[in-house]
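Review this:
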Amino acid sequence: VCLFGCESTGKTQLAEQLARHFNTVASEEYARTWFTFHGDQGTLADIPKTARGQWAANRAAELLAPEVVF
């Protein structure tokens, strides 16, 4: 399940709550971790890097999830 919306609106918190409710997992928000480590100013060149990282985080969550990932 993909939650989409503006930043700082509670999507991560909602995903974690939904995952607990449905006894499954929530995928890490990779871009947040990446920008925290590399600095808040990203460029267009960073988009493919964060996309690959998000794909990997989603894949890792899929391996742990019984059925659905938030």
